[in-house]
Write a structure and sequence with these properties.
By secondary structure, the chain is α+β, with helices and mostly antiparallel strands. Helix content is about 35%, strand content about 30%. The model has no long low-confidence stretch (mean pLDDT about 80).
Amino acid sequence: MFIPIYKVDVEQRMVYGLAADETPDLAGEIWDYAKNKPLVQRWSADCEKRSGGKSLGNIRGQHKMTAAAGVVKSLEWDDVARSCLLGVKVVDDAEWQKVEEGVYTGFSVGGKYVSKATDAKNPKLTRVVIQPSEFSLVDSPCNPSATYTAVKADGTTEDRAFKVKPEPEAAPSPRTPAEEMIAALSSEARKGMYGVSQLASMLESLTWMQAASAMERDSEGDDSDIPERLWKALAELSDIFIEMANEETKELLNGIKPRSAK
């Protein structure tokens, strides 16, 4: 999920953007406000506890584990507008330079999908729930005319343009052995392996859903049996996945002609 930067306080090294709203992104996904809010709040509370109140969330650069860029200083929720304002203090000098130069154009949430569901109003859109593990400053491509407001040290403001990464020129390259093998696959084999990958994705989402429901039950202290039911469903689907993967793998290998020896 990509969140555009709209204001930068140069003196305080603060960067602001919407951490959550229900505007569809370029992938056709909507960050479900009501369902994501408690997950973000829980992530923020854990970060605050670990840091002794100094951080409301961890901020990285480009989702790199080694690029600790800064900390979240404010999370302001608006239940009417169904949005949340994210205020981040950038402490790393190299990451801050990328902010000032307009290299970074927004925030991106890092984590795992908990669930995906077709939007009730627009079936072409998908409502997603994400268990966050961090937010990152990112240089996702932006509109060449897009700008952000920079508040300078003397209190004055100016609009600055984001830097747009040039599109790399496509260079033809010879096929690798793996690419040749994929090209030789029949359409039926490809469909079968696609089904396996879809089931794997479903299992991953269901795993996070089960963990989230168990966490919610423990925090609320109720006796819901949903976590156990989800666990049973996971066990059954896992067996189906193993059988399906073995079956499709055999069919795939049988359909590949061995390469001629040279």
